[in-house]
């Protein structure tokens, strides 16, 4: 493929025309439906255009694939969160199941929390979730994770501080 100059006024249009079909086909192999592939392809182009790439793209498909891979990973993480939430809802008595609107908001919040906790160590994330979502006491968490109660306190404090920094 030819080099694309991202400073050209029609960069986005040329990039889209030359590579959209390829990207959508590539994504279709990694996503459950053609609609999902189309959505992620769209999001990929939006991200690339917002990034305002300064240098000329020597390998536009490689660049698009890198951005798309991250979006596919996010897609699968979000799907896993939604499925776990739906499992919890299925276990509730009918009168305790929230409205569809509340469910949508909760899925969005859970996805945001997952993104905020991303980058923390596995045990730090686990300690936080066990304390705040499962309601376990620190000694129970320490036993489950095979660490001291003091370590659990440090893990939860680390996770809370991390989330607070990201919220500011």
UniProtKB/TrEMBL annotation:
GO terms for biological process: DNA-templated transcription initiation. It holds the Pfam family Sigma70_r2. It comes from the Bacteria. One of its GO terms (molecular function) is DNA binding. InterPro entries: RNA_pol_sigma-70-like, RNA_pol_sigma-70_dom, RNA_pol_sigma70_r2, RNA_pol_sigma70_r4_t2, RNA_pol_sigma_r2, RNA_pol_sigma_r3/r4-like, WH-like_DNA-bd_sf. Residues 112-163 form the RNA polymerase sigma factor 70 region 4 type domain. Keywords: Sigma factor, Transcription, Transcription regulation. The keyword Transcription applies. Residues 15-80 form the RNA polymerase sigma-70 region domain. Belongs to the sigma-70 factor family. ECF subfamily. This is Sigma-70 family RNA polymerase sigma factor. It comes from Verticiella sediminum. The lineage of its organism: Bacteria, Pseudomonadati, Pseudomonadota, Betaproteobacteria, Burkholderiales.
